[in-house]
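Deviations from the work plan: none for this task. Representative record:
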Amino acid sequence: MDNATVLERLRGALPTAVENSSESRGELSIFVRRDAIVDVTRFLRDDPTLSYNFLENLCGVDYLGRTPRFEVVYHLLSHKNRHRICLKVGANEGEAVPTLTGLWATANWQEREAYDLMGIPFAGHPGLQRILLPDDWEGHPLRKDVPLGGEEVAFTFNEDQIYAHKPFAKE
Amino acid sequence: MTAVADPPTVAAYPYTVPSPQEITRPALAGGRDTMVLNMGPHHPSTHGVLRLVVELDGETVVNVAPDIGFLHTGVEKTMESKTYQKAVVLTDRMDYLAPLSNNLSYVLAVEKLLSCVVPPRAQIARVVLTELQRIASHLVWLGSHALDLSAMSVFLYAFREREQILDIFELVSGARLMTSYFRVGGLAYDLPDDFTPTVEAFLDIMPGAADEYEALLSGNPVWLERTVDVGVIDADAAIAFGVSGPMLRAAGIPWDLRKDMPYSSYELFDFDIPIAKKGDIYDRYLVRMAEIRESVKICRQGLQRLKDLGPGPFTTTDRKISPPPKTEITHSMESLIHHFKLWTEGFKPPIGDAYVGIESPRGELGTYIVSDGSPKPYRVHFRAPSFVNLQALPHAAKGRLMADLVALIASMDPVLGDVDR
């Protein structure tokens, strides 16, 4: 399976879904329209010749200052063809990306992680809550406008002040 | 918020991952005949700080939801403020039972960004050391798994051999756990002279030791009772939950990145991919035990290759990536400048992104790096195998006994440092 064939087949099946594509170091990246990501991944998964049956990786990237600000990056793997492709979807602040939990259960936690740390909402996700951080955490630490070390460490002398706005901290 | 396409119907899809609130909320509201039990985060059989919310009907698990994040240390965020070279140290701390695998995944991704060529001696050394790491990690899994099922002696046997592997790591890198031995471009320093005899001595005893463990467990009726047909994750479920590594191969899918997408010269080695059929706990035990033997095979071939290669560079000769040797710095101005620039500023990979997946002891450990052309990574994301594999826990535990849940967690071999990062 080579990159050109993948792109050709995808463009043939879903002509409006692909916005752009690039190839670097032998790997294909396809920029997909946000509302088409479910159709695209379903096609790539179910098409018998392509058969990208495994959702390897899903993560968010914050390109602060760019429009759209966020990018959700998907890596799909085809066990049959031993081939990997990368899909990218752009989203601005507050814009929801359709969930892939209906296609791969593995998207569940990976999307929750992207929501928790990057603040990207996923539309249709069955339980979009924080996963790594406590439920009463404020903000999304992997965003570029959150400074490193911005979170004050709780010691005995200042814990009341810090816990005042964290209802779960003492549970 | 702009309109998005209809979300796929989740109800029609058989594989779900419950969240803790799905269990606790109805339980708090009352009206259910089941008991909700909190297990962890400090519980000896959760292998770290994993909290499980278990809904029980008698002793049968109705539903279970993992609650994670107790060991979240923000590795990905911290890396954005380190230079590429300095961030290697942080990777050790994720999957603390396989630090060398973490090192490898990260440095391969950076090398891919840089299009850097690694000398063969370093590549082979990486293979040998990560295979030793795989054996060490599987020994911890075996020992703690057996301990959870109250087979005390296996733990002591397994840690006896693991100790020897840690001694090898100490010999090579100076550290037993947090090795940071693989660096971008090659290795931190050359292999010591007594590396080959020490590893050979270990490889001579390892197959016999594996026989010993199997003599204790494979035919043991208690072990069989607790593991056969328990905690089944079949091939379809494994794919749906993104399960990788020995758990995927135990479900009958012969997928191994070392074989199917070789990296770091694995294509030169001759080894088999052990698989099983059913995907129960016993199959995962068989697969991991067979992997230990395959790793011994790979290590032997690696040592032979190192002998055939003879002494040579252990890191790339590109001075823009890897620092010059100390002897050069003392008399070459250019080397001194290179060294100074590397340690004060670091190197600048071209703008772009790269993803590399390697076969860690737990499954596919992926590193996704975005470079903005500066000496620090713009974004690093780790596809942690423990994190992804753990999602399959509720699916496999439902309808089984509470005691089976303990066996199941141990057979999934999660490392909470890897889950939470």
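The domain at 3-132 of chain A is CATH 3.30.460.80 (Beta Polymerase; domain 2).
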